[in-house]
């Protein structure tokens, strides 16, 4: 049986007032959430306006949005957003697409369920876009003057929805497929991710090579160990076979690592071990509508702007098996001539992790940073 839900949302994100047209879609899913919402024209409603290209602006005096990724989730996120327009509707749509109550999972847990890849990626995606609703209500100018955005890993999907490149429901379905495929790939071999803070003389690629040689000596076939996230100067996340990560921790002092910490994730994301996940994501991206972003959106793969819809599709798939070049992305966004003002930066989503990386990459840009609170004891 097909369940049809039509969500009409207003007040954000396109044109001068940026109406929330990407979320005004007719969504068709089955009860288990196994079929994607069909691509098609935007619903024709009195509030709908033809999409208009925004005039490119100098980022000086404008705003930049940063959307967090997996790892930023926590039980209770979203509690501070429910009183804002459209947020409950967004979670209602999510329940239809995912086949479970995402809002209850965000608010009440249990934590071990929220931490699972298949749950936390949709949770961070929806909560981040709900945070935009809060920002629009409290500081509409920040939304209206946003000229650039970037998202960390799955956060890139939220950035693309915000930019008008994808519609909320279709992007959420793609995130669902992505998360399930990544979880499945993670279960093939023992693997993980390791946060590393290194000394200036640390050689990360050489360390990974040594770790792979160690894996080979243990009989591991085609060992994988590589930098998965470039976070900030001397800050990396390395991912691969568990034996390789164990080697790095056991030899951290010799490898010039100051600190290592295993991350609570299920697999080696953004490495070759995610190859199995690429085809499911490629296929779902063929089914959904993708448009050229209306503002500058930067790809994790190379830190460069998306140029067109085909570029978006290619890079989102490539991102699964490529390192997240977040440090490079921040340099690309905030590069400017001496004396030029920096934009206001908003982290829209759970946590302040992207703000911490911005502070380490560009202290001047961080001076105009703020995060949008997504949970509050005063917002029940």
Question: What does this entry look like structurally?
Answer:
With 380 residues, this protein is α/β, with parallel strands linked by helices. Helices cover 38% and strands 17% of the residues. It folds into two domains: 59-186 and 271-372, 3-Layer(aba) Sandwich (Malonyl-Coenzyme A Acyl Carrier Protein, domain 2), CATH 3.40.366.10; 189-263, 2-Layer Sandwich (Alpha-Beta Plaits), CATH 3.30.70. The strands form three sheets. Strands 9-4-3-11-12 form a five-stranded parallel sheet. Strands 8-5-7-6-10 form a five-stranded mixed sheet. Helix 1 (87-98) packs antiparallel against helix 4 and helix 8 packs across helix 9. It starts with a strand and ends in an 8-residue tail after the last strand. Mean pLDDT is 87; it is low at 1-34 and 38-52.
């Amino acid at each position: 049986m097909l369940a049809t839900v039509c969500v009409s949302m207003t007040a954000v994100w396109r044109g001068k007032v940026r109406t929330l047209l990407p979320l005004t879609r007719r969504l068709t899913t089955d009860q288990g959430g196994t079929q994607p919402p069909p691509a098609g024209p935007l619903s024709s409603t009195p509030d709908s306006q033809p999409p208009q290209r925004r005039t490119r602006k100098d980022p000086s005096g404008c705003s930049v949005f940063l959307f967090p990724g997996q790892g930023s989730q926590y039980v209770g996120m979203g509690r501070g957003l429910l009183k804002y327009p459209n947020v409950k509707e967004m979670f209602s749509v999510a329940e239809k697409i995912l086949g479970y109550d995402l809002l209850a999972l965000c608010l009440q847990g249990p934590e071990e369920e929220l931490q699972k890849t298949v749950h936390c990626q949709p949770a961070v995606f929806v909560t981040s876009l709900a945070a935009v609703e809060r920002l629009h209500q409290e500081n509409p100018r920040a939304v209206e003057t946003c000229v650039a955005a970037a998202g960390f890993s799955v956060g890139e999907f939220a950035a693309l929805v915000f930019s008008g490149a994808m519609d909320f429901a279709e992007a959420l379905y793609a995130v669902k497929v992505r998360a399930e495929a990544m979880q499945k790939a993670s279960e093939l071999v023992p693997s993980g991710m390791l946060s590393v803070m290194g000394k200036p003389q640390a050689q990360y690629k050489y360390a990974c090579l040594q770790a792979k040689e160690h894996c080979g000596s243990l009989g591991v076939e085609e060992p994988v160990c590589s930098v998965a996230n470039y976070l900030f100067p001397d800050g990396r996340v390395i991912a691969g076979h568990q034996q390789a990560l164990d080697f790095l921790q056991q030899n951290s002092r010799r490898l010039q690592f100051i600190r290592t910490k295993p991350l609570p994730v299920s697999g080696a994301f953004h490495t070759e071990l995610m190859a199995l996940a690429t085809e499911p994501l490629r296929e779902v991206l063929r089914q959904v509508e993708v448009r050229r972003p209306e503002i500058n959106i930067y790809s994790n793969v190379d830190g460069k702007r998306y140029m067109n819809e085909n570029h978006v599709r290619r890079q989102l798939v490539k991102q699964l098996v490529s390192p997240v070049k977040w440090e490079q992305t921040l340099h690309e966004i905030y590069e400017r001539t001496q004396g030029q003002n920096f934009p206001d930066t908003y982290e829209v989503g759970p946590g302040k992790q992207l703000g911490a990386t911005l502070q380490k990459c560009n202290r001047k840009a961080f001076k105009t940073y703020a995060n949008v609170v997504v949970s509050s004891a005063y917002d029940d």
